[in-house]
Amino acid sequence: MTATDPVRFGVIGVGRITQNRFAPALANASNATLVAAASRDEARAAALGAKAYGRYDDLIADGDVEAVYIATHNGLHRDLTLQALAAGKHVLCEKPLGRSAAECEEVINAAQAANLHLVEAFMYRHHPQVAKAAELVKAGAIGELKVVEASFSFHLEGEDDVRLNPEWGGGGLLDVGCYCVNWCRLFLGDQPVAVRARAAFHPEHDVDMSLHGVLDYGDGRFGVVSCGFDSGLRHPALLSGTEGIIRVPEAFLTFPGQTTSVILENASGSESFACGPVDTFQCEIEDLSDSIRVGRPPLLPPDEGLHNARVMASLLAAARES
Question: How many other CB atoms are found less than 10 A from the CB of residue 236?
Answer without folding.
Answer: 15
